[in-house]
Write a structure and sequence with these properties.
single chain, 386 residues, alpha/beta, TIM Barrel, 2 domains, eight-stranded parallel barrel, two-stranded antiparallel sheet, binds iron/sulfur cluster
Length: 386
């Protein structure tokens, strides 16, 4: 297993980490026999970094992961856990959640402690209620070893957090070859952390699985130009070839996926120039798919009397067009959007159109998006009922 020394923290970690957020499930609960086998496989293959969070698997993940790791010597692995963002009213609230987390884990200390899913708004709130000081207090007490945060926002928001508090031990960001230069601007996040010498943990190297199950037009490019190379291994090796990435999290859901992932890092080779060229071809093919040029500025949203989340509809529509991701589209439309925010509520009043700097014909594009998303949802529902 490829290892990585992090001099600023005085530890050596496996380059591959296991994220316990997509473990196998049955009837809405973690399928424990299979999940335990998967975690054991990871440990035995040399993975030493295990990541969980308060809300994963509806609160089951922390206890499940810690329970599966308990048979191994505590000093042989690093546990990462995250303080969730909740409607804390006072210091007592987030302290109580932390104690609940330690109780679920049944462990004395957390190695990598993260403030979960940080963004500009949450950082402001956390500062107001004293969370960063509390995290440092946990560190002084030895209950956590390293203090960091996972991040979902713009480079400007990251810069603000790093300026406010420069001494972070590490930061976790979403990074993969698609999002390097997408609207997420992950490349800028990576460069900012690298410039400041802050260790980097990467989540979503497969972009929620999308880069492993690319649509046929993209898979064909890889199969033709790089016979025998899987899309998943290509995506992992792209991240692994970045010099300042320390740990890459995999969210495997099956033993087969876990084995494929550990194999990449047991016998790791950086990408060749030809492989970078093929990834460029894949990106060009994805970019050529028609999409609505929405930048997500949200100027249209406040003008809409129906409360439609126009940029989110276009985001889901664009992702469907590029990745043929019926299941993800279905899930996003049902879970990330309230019923009143969906495209079907458009009354074609046109109030949003003049607000759009991109001059998008929003009512017309919403009609197309609604049809495409609706068809994807039907296919996903049919596939799920089989
Ligand atoms: S045209 Fe549709 S999306 Fe635009 S403001 Fe009217 S109801 Fe909202
Ligand atoms: S105003 Fe235009 S670009 Fe901005 S979010 Fe709305 S549709 Fe997208």
């Amino acid at each position: 297993m490829l290892k990585r020394e992090i001099p600023s923290l005085g530890v050596t970690v496996s380059r591959l980490g296991f994220g316990a957020m997509r473990m196998p499930e049955r009837d809405g609960k973690i399928e424990r026999v299979e999940a335990t086998r998967m975690i054991a496989h990871m440990f035995e293959a040399g993975v030493t970094y295990f990541d969980t969070a308060y809300p994963y698997h509806n609160g089951e993940s922390e206890e499940m992961l810690a329970g599966a790791l308990r048979r191994f010597p505590r000093e042989r692995f690093f546990l990462a856990d995250k303080l969730p963002f909740l409607e804390y009213k006072s210091e007592a609230d987030y302290k109580a959640v932390t104690e609940e987390q330690f109780s679920r884990l049944g462990m004395d200390y957390i190695d990598f402690h993260l403030l979960h899913a940080m963004n500009a708004k949450r950082w402001k709130f956390f500062k107001e209620i004293g969370v960063p000081q509390y995290q440092q207090e946990l560190k002084r007490q030895g209950r956590i070893r390293f203090a960091g945060f996972s991040f979902h926002d713009s480079p400007e928001a990251l810069e603000q957090i790093l300026n406010d508090q420069p001494d972070w031990d590490f930061v976790q960001i979403q990074l993969n070859y698609f999002d390097w230069a997408s609207s997420l601007r992950s490349g800028e996040l990576y460069n900012m952390l690298a410039d400041r010498g802050i260790p980097i943990i990467v989540m979503e190297p497969l972009r929620g699985g999308m880069l492993a199950s690319l649509p046929p037009y993209a898979q064909d490019i890889i199969a033709t130009r790089l016979p025998g190379v899987t899309p998943a291994s290509l995506a992992y090796r792209w991240v692994g070839s970045l010099p300042y990435v320390d740990v890459i999290l995999t969210g495997a859901s099956t033993i087969a996926q876990a084995k494929e992932n550990t194999a990449v890092f047991e016998d790791f080779s950086p990408l060749t120039q030809k492989e970078y060229d093929v990834i460029d071809e894949v990106l060009a093919a994805i970019a050529a798919k028609p999409s609505v040029p929405c930048t997500g500025c949200r100027y249209c949203v406040s003008a809409c009397p129906q409360g439609i989340n126009i940029p989110q509809v276009f985001y889901i529509y664009n992702e469907q067009g590029k990745f043929d991701c019926d299941g993800t589209t279905h899930w996003r439309y049902l879970n990330e959007m309230k019923p009143q925010e969906r495209a079907e509520n458009c009354i074609e009043c046109g109030a949003c159109v003049s607000q759009c700097p991109q001059k998008i014909d929003i009512p017309e594009e919403l009609k197309v998006a609604r049809k495409t998303i609706g068809e994807a949802c039907k296919r996903a529902a049919a596939a799920e009922s089989k």
